[in-house]
Design a protein that fits this description.
The protein has 317 residues and is of the alpha/beta class. It has 14 helices and ten strands.
Length: 317
């Protein structure tokens, strides 16, 4: 298969743009002041289904044939990709199954059901969830749509960065959270076609730092027991996303759990918008001082806003 590139991101955008929100790019004087940079937040928390995941899921599902759609689609997801795939499937009149971990948040479970997904609960172990998904695929004949390790998914996710620069102008840095690597990989592909070309950085929880460790040693080292409030970033890199990030990513900044919680709260308080912990990982990295030099323009992908309001990370108990 031909290597993925900027042209695939542009093609994905042409395919999905009628079905997504062109989310706003917001600024905040507080973040400009504390970083010394001009920070541009691409607000995918305002995207349909509440996260950037819709971009990749739509690009994948809109590319399926009628015969494939008749079999339905399935995936394994902690929530955001499951919601996105269910929405995309409903748009095209297809059934959707989602294998999810037993600790998936109630708000994400409810959203997946609301979009029409049929839920299958498995353990938190990624290998077991994948096994359940494979068994379900054999039983139903459905098309498996991966959460991140897929060319159509990666190209679709890159459209967020493409829109950011189209709407806000050139940037020196693009910063995206890293879980399975789909968003960061897509962002890196988008950056490759921009002039001037920004450097692309990833942000990752220290408690689920497989990407940082893998890129440091040059081979994939999956997380065995990731434990982070950023549930959307517990997945390990796939072969495709590892290859793209190894070739194109300038580096990864890791942040601890208190920094993630504080960054999330600061965005809520200062920007008056709701983001989830996975999105806050990128903000925590921004605030670490390891991302931007004074005077630079920094684009930050706020990946989503699907939050369980009964389990806020700064709440007592």
């Amino acid at each position: 298969m031909p290597e993925l590139g900027f042209q695939d991101v542009r093609a994905a955008h042409a395919r999905i743009r009628e079905h997504i929100h062109r989310t706003p790019v917001l600024t905040c004087a507080h973040f400009d002041r504390v970083t010394g940079a001009r920070v541009l937040f691409k607000c995918e928390n305002f995207q349909r289904t509440g996260a950037f995941k819709l971009r990749g899921a739509l690009n994948a599902v809109l590319g399926l044939s009628e015969d494939e759609l008749a079999r339905g689609v399935l995936t394994a997801s902690s929530g955001n990709h499951g919601q996105a795939l269910a929405y995309a499937a409903r748009l095209r009149g297809a059934r959707c199954w989602v294998v999810l971990p037993e600790d998936a948040t109630p708000v994400k479970r409810a959203a997946m059901r609301g979009y029409g997904a049929e839920l299958v609960v498995a353990s938190r172990d990624p290998d077991e969830r994948l096994g359940r998904a494979e068994a379900l695929q054999q039983e139903t004949g459905a098309v498996f749509v991966p959460p991140f390790n897929d060319p159509a998914i990666v190209a679709g996710q890159g459209t967020a960065a493409l829109e950011l620069v189209q709407d806000a102008g050139p940037v020196d840095v693009l910063l995206a959270p890293v879980g399975g690597g789909g968003l960061a990989s897509g962002t890196a592909l988008a950056a490759a076609g921009l002039t001037p070309q920004p450097r692309v950085l990833g942000a990752e929880p220290a408690a689920a730092d497989d990407a940082a460790r893998s890129l440091a040693c040059g081979r994939r080292l999956p997380s065995e027991h990731p434990s982070t409030m950023a549930d959307g970033l517990r997945s390990s890199l796939g072969e495709l996303t590892f290859r793209i990030l190894r070739e194109r990513l300038a580096g990864i900044v890791t942040v601890d759990e208190p920094a993630i919680a504080q960054a999330m709260r600061t965005v809520w308080e200062r920007m008056k918008i709701v983001i989830e912990p996975s999105a806050a990982v990128a903000v925590a990295a921004l605030l670490s001082g390891e991302v931007a030099r004074p005077g630079e323009r920094v684009g930050v992908i706020l990946s989503g806003g699907n939050v369980d309001l009964d389990r806020l990370p700064w709440a007592d108990g």
